[in-house]
Design a protein that fits this description.
binds NADP nicotinamide-adenine-dinucleotide phosphate; 8 helices; 40% helix
Length: 259
């Protein structure tokens, strides 16, 4: 089966392309770096020739409110039109658990707009909503840093390894369209502030993490359960501590090589 991965050079996309190839599929990594641009339309028609499935794991280069909305709306419209012309039978898109509870953020308004365009199109689809990736915990802490302090709310969340996200997307993309939304998440629940503290400590990062119920998640208020998936979510296997040991080793190796 030919599967075109739009955003196939990104964190999830590059893992997904490898997994699809390991399963014996023809997986094409499509992104500006490989000459395919879903916003301008460059290279799309050629990339989609003979494709059965298109997986959209793009992300916007800018998260500014107007720019991110324009990115996801334009890109999704172009993809769906090109897929209709090419006879694609399954459109899969990666979105975020809790999107409708996070609409004070322009990023999540853009993700909801993306989902709504997909639901209104004629292409059979599956929307996959994932919880935060383990790889995203440090960027969340970085965003919430002032001086040497990281202020984060004690909201519950259930993050997952990017590798488990890619495995779930590969499985879903190579099955029949659900014509709806499926949720995926990690195997354990944590408090956001507590997990950031553990992550920074393992990296020997000297910043202090402070639990602050009024602090935002990426700048917006979140209720205690806003980031949690529904009960029926499919759960990844990788535990945070096991992932963290590997991540900390990689950071230590990079430090040694730089020294
Ligand atoms: N971070 C999280 O915790 C989380 C949780 C749930 C869901 N998600 C969703 O997962 C998706 C993928 O995230 P990620 O972290 O894997 O993203 P990423 O590493 O930032 O990769 C983004 C990809 O989008 C491509 N791209 C950018 N502009 C493009 C364009 N005009 N046309 C085609 N491709 C373009 C990039 O291509 P180049 O390399 O060529 O620039 C890259 O391959 C996002 O939609 C995000 O909302 C994220």
């Amino acid at each position: 089966m030919k599967v075109v991965v739009i955003g196939g050079t990104g964190l999830i996309g590059s893992k997904l392309v490898k997994k699809l190839r390991d399963l014996g599929h023809e997986a094409v990594a499509a992104s500006p770096n490989t000459g395919v641009n879903s916003v301008t339309g460059e290279g799309l028609a050629d990339a989609l020739k003979g494709a059965s499935v298109v997986v959209d794991v793009t992300n916007s280069p800018s998260w500014e409110d107007a720019a991110v909305l324009k990115f996801f709306e334009t890109s999704t419209r172009n993809l769906l039109a090109s897929e209709a012309a090419a006879g694609v039978r399954h459109h899969v898109a990666l979105s975020v658990v809790g999107t409708e509870r996070l609409l004070q953020s322009g990023f999540f308004r853009a993700k909801l707009a993306q989902e709504n365009l997909i639901k209104a199109s004629s292409i059979p689809y599956t929307i996959i909503r994932a919880t935060q990736f383990f790889e995203f915990v440090k960027p969340i802490a970085d965003f919430s840093t002032v001086g040497n302090q990281v202020r984060l709310p004690p909201a519950l969340f259930q993050p997952m390894a990017a590798d488990d996200v890619a495995s779930a997307v590969a499985r879903i993309a190579t099955n029949s369209p659900v014509k709806g939304t499926v949720e995926i998440g990690g195997p354990e629940q944590f408090r956001l502030n507590e997990l950031a503290r553990r992550h920074l400590a393992a990296l020997r990062d000297p910043r202090e993490v402070i639990s602050d119920p009024h602090a935002g998640y990426y700048g917006i208020p979140v209720s205690e359960r806003a980031l949690l998936p529904d009960k029926g979510a499919r759960l990844g296997e990788t535990r945070f501590d096991d992932w963290l040991i590997q991540a900390a080793k990689q950071v230590a190796t990079a430090r040694t090589q730089r020294a």
